[in-house]
Amino acid sequence: MTTPGDITQLYTEARPKSKAWYARATATLGGAVGHDVRHFEPVPMYIARGQGSRKWDVDGNEYIDFLLGNGALLLGHSPPEVVEAIQRTLVDGTHFGNDHPLHIEWGEVVKQLVPTAEKVRFVNSGTEATLLALRLGRAFTGKSVVVRFEGHFHGWHDGVVHGFQPPFDADGSLGVPPQVWDSFVTAPANDLDSLDEILSSPDSDIAAAIIEPSGASWGRIPIDPGFLRGLRELTKKHGVVLIFDEVVTGFRFSPGGAEQLFGITPDLSCFAKIVAGGMPGGAVSGGDEIMSLFDFSGDAVHDRHQRVVHQGTFNGAPLSAAAGVAYLKQIATGEPTKSADALAAQLRETFEDVLERHGIAGYVYGISSTFHVFFETDVAAAARASRRSDLHTADPQKLKGMSGELISRYQLHLRHHGVDNMSSTGGVLSSVHTQKDIEEATDAFEKTVVALAGEKLILKL
């Protein structure tokens, strides 16, 4: 049996070029990485290229990719139509500092797909999208406080960095002014009575409510669609702007996102990842009334004091617009979503079979083209379960409470066997994954859970 020390040694020995790049990154980059979730011991991944459903690191190690650009690549790596669109645009210039025809066409395609998108405003990331949407919500209502939900992730800006990881009442980062807490209320999801109490408070000053319609962290904490419908009703009743954070779900859960899949109409929707076709970009969409807050009137007082200000050097940038248009036209057919959903359902089933055969205290879940794995590591809770289905939970403390050691070892074993996940123990699929990918990933998953059980990091029923 491979010991914990052996697997770390084998993994490191297979990545000598990665080690060299890590040494250079440590001397050059703050925190040695460009995104907190890229931090990984013993050495981060340094990817050289990607094609279809796979990618290769600088050492030539090959991975079945369930990270897919943090969920951005529903069509897989380097889809020909998108690459060609970028190349055509590139020869005419990378950036103008002006609007351009592709920018308008990009907005038109978003409007075509998203049911509530009467107007669109482009930004450069998901964090920028939620930041702008919150400003719109406050401007529209004239109020200040935002309701967000335990475990839901909306980017890294000061307003939302608290509350997405347990303990949910702790500061999310150093460097955030304490008065930021005064502008937010963190509520439990799936609890309409609690939400009604918050919104009904006469001194609540609630401007908006923001939520991942998938459930927290792209569905890691499942959400009841009935709660979403109740949320919509309550926010309408109290004059609160409802914001769907569709940075992951947009154009993945359906061509029109989660709002189309669930048939629920928010006031504003936030997009990134898929909307820009694998390039940097994001967007906020909404109805004419709220989006008119961006409008210039020609009146000096209005235009200086009575509108929402928004700049951004690379908003609607040509290469992002070109990629976004090409990508969304493919998604508009519905076929990429249908294919990715079917493959994800198959992967969830085969992973579940592995857990069942080995009697592991855990389960696999997810919707659309996502999957998540939960391991119950509480001995008493596992002992109370007579079958694995007894372990199912929507408790954010449990689902986001697996130990860092377990998650790191899980990812290490999977990567050693040629599989990369999106984050924690879950991932997303693309329309170009194959049956071979499913089979090989399932084999890697089986080797991983057997090893973790041997390391006493996961339990058996």
Write up this protein.
- With 461 residues, the chain is α/β, with parallel strands linked by helices.
- It has two domains: 4-76 and 335-454, Aspartate Aminotransferase, domain 1 (Alpha-Beta Complex), CATH 3.90.1150; 80-331, Type I PLP-dependent aspartate aminotransferase-like (Major domain) (Aspartate Aminotransferase, domain 2), CATH 3.40.640.10.
- Helix content is 41%, strand content 14%.
- The protein has helices at residues 4-13, 16-28, 68-71, 80-90, 101-113, 126-141, 192-200, 216-219, 225-237, 257-262, 288-291, 300-305, 318-331, 335-358, 379-384, 396-399, 404-416, 435-454; strands at 47-51, 54-57, 62-65, 119-123, 145-149, 184-187, 206-211, 221-222, 241-245, 268-271, 282-286, 362-365, 370-375, 419-420, 427-428.
- The strands form three sheets. A seven-stranded mixed β-sheet has the order 4-11-10-9-7-5-6, with helices on both faces. Strands 1-2-3-14 form a four-stranded mixed β-sheet.
- Strand 1 and strand 2 (54-57) form a beta hairpin.
- Helix 4 (80-90) packs antiparallel against helix 13 (318-331), helix 5 runs parallel beside helix 13 and helix 17 packs across helix 18.
- The longest helix has 24 residues, at 335-358.
- The protein is globular and about 70 Å long.
